[in-house]
Amino acid sequence: MTSLSPQGSLSRIRIGSAPDSWGVWFPDDPQQVPWQRFLDEVAQSGYEWIELGPYGYLPSDPAVLAEETARRGLKVSAGTVFTGLHHGPDVWDRTWAHVADIAALTQAMGASHLVVIPSFWRDDKTGEVLEPDTLTAAQWRHLTSLTERLGREVRERYGLRIVVHPHADTHIDSEENVTRFLDGTDPSLVSLCLDTGHYAYCGGDSVKLIETYGERIGYLHLKQVDPEVLAEVRADGTPFGPAVAKGVMCEPPSGVPALEPVLAAAQKLDVDLFAIVEQDMYPCEPDRPLPIAQRTRAFLRSCGA
């Protein structure tokens, strides 16, 4: 076992995986494996923790989902919601309607985190540009103030902590935009879900971010990018969805960033953190995810996690 901390292991890091690593991006899609197969295979790969994935993919009845996860030895770490809060107060009611059901299920499953993904400025399937890729000063104010409101409401109503996920093809992507977002939000209300793959995709350094804004890191997604494919998609201006289809997100440890230093930096924060493996693979052949998941879990064990 590689020693990355005084204890010789990543004792504060809880490893899991997600439907994303099985090519699941949508609640219902003929190119995706059935939810039963995902649960069987994620357990078979040696993971204890999972995320809910797109709402409606896994059973949304808490009693059913609790039974299905428990009998496979699985527990839920978080739910995921999508938001476009930079559009201002007019979208609040619609956003809350989307958030409330997911937050309720997340709470019912005993999880304490809600991953918040900003809306895309271009369509992840078609590449159609939906709006400008930069925000105005007024839109930044909407984004920060309404995200704080979301954090407050989710905590008060459901006892959950929001963790905002910087994501390619959104307005919270690069180091500049991530730090601007963090500097503009209240640490007691808004934490970050640092996705190592997305941050590298957008030119960021995950270790530097953890060392600089450690108190804001509330959750991790472990992911790597293939530097050669990334260079191609950047040069071509390829949207995120088609970039994934080209294999821009790759199986660790073959890509960047190296995950050992990221995990070591996270362990030094001395707080309990989930580190959920996500290898974007939509669409993918149904037999592809399981062996990758098994190899990835073995690799993370070799890192002490």
Structural class of the secondary elements?
alpha/beta
Strand order in the largest sheet? 1-2-3-4-5-6-7-10
Give the low-confidence spans: 1-7
Radius of gyration, CA atoms, in whole angstroms = 18 Å
Structure description:
With 305 residues, the chain is of the alpha/beta class. It is 39% helix and 15% strand. It contains 11 helices and 10 strands. The strands form 2 sheets. The protein has an 8-stranded parallel barrel with strand order 1-2-3-4-5-6-7-10, surrounded by 5 helices. A two-stranded antiparallel ribbon has the order 8-9. Helix 3 packs parallel to helix 4 and helix 7 runs parallel beside helix 10. The longest helix is centred in the middle third of the chain and has 22 residues. The chain is globular, with a radius of gyration of 18 Å. The N terminus is likely disordered.
Tell me the layout of helices and strands.
Blueprint: E1 13-17, H1 35-44, E2 49-51, H2 62-70, E3 75-83, H3 92-108, E4 113-118, H4 137-158, E5 161-164, H5 175-183, E6 191-195, H6 196-201, H7 206-212, E7 217-222, E8 224-225, H8 227-236, H9 240-245, E9 249-250, H10 259-268, E10 273-277, H11 289-302
Parallel strand pairs: 1-2, 1-10, 2-3, 3-4, 4-5, 5-6, 6-7, 7-10
Antiparallel strand pairs: 8-9
Question: What's this model, at a glance?
Answer:
By secondary structure, the protein is of the alpha/beta class. It is built from eleven helices and ten strands.
Features:
eight-stranded parallel barrel; disordered N terminus; 305 residues; 39% helix; 10 strands; alpha/beta
